[in-house]
Amino acid sequence: MERGNDAARNPTSPLKNPLMDLLHAVRSSGSISGAAKSLALSYRHVWGELRRWETALGEPLIIWEKGQAARLTPFADKLLWAERQAQARLAPQISALQAELEKTFALAFEPDRHVLTLYASHDDALVSLREHAAQQHLHLDMRFCGSVDAIRALNEGRCTVAGFHAPMRPPADSLVARTYKPLLRTGRHKIIGFASRQQGLIVAPGNPLGLTQWSDLLRPGLRLANRTLGTGTRLLLDDWLRRQGLDGHALIGYDQTEPSHAAVATRIASGQADVALGIASAAHMHGLGFVPLLQENYWLVCLKSALDTPAVQALRALVGSYTWAQQLLHHSGYSAHSHPGQVQSLKAQLPWWA
After folding, report:
1. Alpha-carbon distance 351 to 305, whole Å?
2. How many domains is the chain partitioned into structurally?
3. Which end of the chain has fewer CB within 10 Å, C or N?
4. Of 62-66, 134-138, 200-204, which range is least confident?
């Protein structure tokens, strides 16, 4: 089974475990000596630690064959995938905690820095935007949640800006339109162009099952990794099912949900599922295949009363800058919005208001 790309492991993750670091190093280098070198440790120390862990766990971790490259046992492989899945599932909570700490320090030590609270649907480009904004004296206090939950947070006063996504031209009677329409009001809300991105099927490397279209999700025995209720991606899937006259019972794994694109990609990479609906960048990050199904807009939205505040103006200038447009190109499946950073007409861009 293809085991994905070890680069998907984030070396800066706050969740560190010495055993997992050892196993990742052995897998990447194919030898104990190579693992020791990559970790800046002695061969004797790495060998001793692996033996100690094998004794403690009561299971072999390394296939020790003289003259052969060091390989992980199936048990060690399972440990690594369990750790990677935990990392992906906890990423939103860890991100929220980091944002809270960064906000505290920004307010305490940099009184001139703009601070903007942003609730948003999970998006890889937004993570990069937060890092880019920090260099421009704009701190984005970013919390990831579903698109629907993000707009609700905006309407309840828990954030200044929300991020959500929708297909380019969803029908007025679609579940997407009927879900967003009560949450957004012309005259009260202002939407800002951010990016366009691809949604599609995240599949195993090389797409061994030959999945090419929505209807392939109905193949007998196909296992789905689904997104949680309230996310824009879940809306897309539920809308497609409704149009086929079906519900979630038609799909194996429909109730097996994950909080982010990275988490469903991890399920595919570990062999726990065959397919997931998600974004291209998540598939690329985990060394997986991707079948594009639709192009969608990712929008930022704020209340009209906040549009001219210094923090929102700084955000709009950043999103509309040339440097950010160039940085966005590094993300697989993304392209610049036609009018990045500019205020767009709700009726023109979300045609179900017409």
Report:
1. 23
2. 2
3. C
4. 62-66
The mean predicted confidence, pLDDT, of the chain is 85
One domain for residues 56 and 170? no
Place of tokens 């862990």: 53
Within a 10 A sphere around the Cβ of 210, how many other Cβ atoms? 10
- Same-domain status, 65 and 137: no
Q: Are 273 and 266 in contact (CB under 8 A)?
A: no
Q: Answer whether residue 99 is part of any domain.
A: no
Q: Do β-strands 114-120 and 161-167 pair in parallel, antiparallel, or remain unpaired?
A: parallel
State the average pLDDT over residues 181-191: 92
Q: Are residues 233 and 117 in the same domain?
A: yes
Q: How far is residue 217's CA from residue 262's CA, in Å, rounded to a whole number?
A: 20
CA pair distance 299, 343, nearest whole angstrom: 10
Name the nearest CA neighbour of 120 among 192, 171, 170: 192
Same domain for 55 and 157, yes or no, is no
- 245-302: per-residue pLDDT in tens? 999 999 999 999 998 898 899 899 989 999 999 999 999 988 999 999 999 999 999 9
